[in-house]
ZFAN1 protein (Mesembrinibis cayennensis), 171 residues
Amino acid sequence: MAELELGRHCGVADCRQLDFLPFICDGCSGVFCLQHRSRDAHGCSEVNIRNNSVKPDQHRSYPCSYKDCNGKELLPVLCPYCEKHFCLRHRHQSDHECEKLDTPKPRMAATQQLVKHIIGKYNSKKNEEAKSKKRKGAKNNETAAKVALMKLKMHACGDKSLPQVSHVYFQ
């Protein structure tokens, strides 16, 4: 019967345990079992070299290219048009006065004009109706408002199990 090659043996000479989920050390790239996975447990030779090579406050910063700005970012913020580095405050084209400023074109200008025209017509019709149906006196206005509210409530649809005080009506 053929042997299956599953798992890997621990890299520590005294252990050599077969582990089906082995750990790989990021320092020396060795394969280890659960017991020897830490650098101290397997005596990693790379631990001192790695710790000395990386200094804790050593990181690259990207200064802002905008005039009179001293901002810096830890990650590069590049403008896709002029390909210069900027801080988060000046990252948009309009904020850093990009020489290749892409002016946005008005979207759906014809539709917007049509909507304004329709709204204008609707408002003028409403004003004419209001003038023709003008009622005299405050009492008539109050009564008209009450009647409109009653009609709204009468034709309202919704959950009838809710109490009357918690109903909200939209016209």
